[in-house]
Amino acid sequence: MEEKEFIELITNHQRIIYKVCNLYAQSSTDKEDLFQEITLNAWKGIRNFKGDSLFTTWLYRVALNTALTFKRKENRQRKVDNAVDSLAFPHEQQPEADEQLAAMYKAINELSDIDKALITLYLDDYNYSEMGNVLGITANNVAVKMNRLKKKLKEESEKYLNNQ
């Protein structure tokens, strides 16, 4: 693949990288570093992309693996308030919806790295089979984890809303 084609693909799908960066890095500097690291790893690995899956599935896998490695290297402690402050919420929503969304993001931020990855893929409308391919687990395992995660997120976000 030519550099120009790669840049075009990354540009067209950069929101995947941004989403992963927002979940796994706190400061804007760390997010920029992680974005560059993901892009570099994608460039290094693009010749191994065989097209057996969608490019977006492959990019998610590269992004998540890079983010997990980045996190381990830096051994970062994320704080819920900093993560919520750095999120951009849509302006057209009502204040109550903003509170619910903030509570959900707080709950998501407290999940394990794998669970965050599952929720991120779920929110991007990936099916369980695709999610399993990205994370290297079976679709059945994804289904079980998602059922537990949905229940946990509902409980946690309600708890945040009740504590406000």
Automatic annotation (TrEMBL):
Domain of life of the source: Bacteria
Q: Does the keyword Ion transport apply?
A: no
Q: Name the coiled-coil region(s).
A: none
One Gene Ontology biological process: DNA-templated transcription initiation
Q: Which residues form the RNA polymerase sigma-70 region domain?
A: 9-76
Identify the residues that the record assigns to the RNA polymerase sigma factor 70 region 4 type domain, covering every copy.
103-153
Kindly indicate where the leader peptide sits in this chain.
Answer: none
This chain belongs to the protein called RNA polymerase sigma factor
Give the originating organism.
Pinibacter aurantiacus
Ordered alphabetically, the record's keywords are:
Sigma factor, Transcription, Transcription regulation
Q: Which GO terms describe its molecular function?
A: DNA binding; sigma factor activity
